[in-house]
Amino acid sequence: MILQTKVYSEEIDLVFTKKLVDIWKIVSPNTTGLDDPLINPLVEGAQPLKELACNRVLVLVGGMDVLRDRGKAYYEKLKKSGWNGEVKIWEAVGEGHCFHLEKPESEQAKEQDRIIVEFLNMI
């Protein structure tokens, strides 16, 4: 699956989506946008996922995150890529992008922290 610049979850908050594009332009001035192979591993020209150098990946998405669908697509494509590692996904239902920074004491933020710690402590 190759994602186009606009995916459903990006319409959750068009202003925030534009801010992400603007930030990426600062990080990579010659970018082609959200479908730049440097930021979107699902597009033509990106390095093949089966060549990923690590052996585990944890994908975290917020249910109301403008990048939710891209995160889920990455998870699905990585699973089917022939990569020889373990991939997990966790979704913070009803939460937006970086919700844990705005509400660090929320139950969802604490659960996400637990998921991250568990993942990092796996050997």
Descriptive overview:
α2 (68-80) links the parallel β1 (56-62) and β2. This protein is 37% helix and 11% strand. It has helices at 14-27, 68-80, 99-102, 107-121; strands at 56-62, 86-92. The model has no long low-confidence stretch (mean pLDDT 87). It is globular and about 40 Å long. It is built from four helices and two strands; from the N terminus they run αβαβαα. The longest helix is centred in the last third of the chain and has 15 residues, at 107-121. With 123 residues, the chain is of the alpha+beta class.
Number of helices: 4
What is the rounded distance between the termini?
31 Å
Large-scale geometry: globular
Structural category: alpha+beta
Relative strand content? 5-15%
Major sheet size, sense and barrel closure: 2 strands, parallel
The ordered string of helix (H) and strand (E) elements is HEHEHH
Secondary structure: number of strands: 2
- Which range best describes the helical content: under 10%, 10-25%, 25-40%, 40-55%, 55-70% or over 70%? 25-40%
In spatial order, strands of the major sheet run 1-2
> Low-confidence runs (pLDDT<50, min 5 residues)?
none
**Gyration radius from CA atoms, angstroms:** 15 Å
* Overall average pLDDT: 87
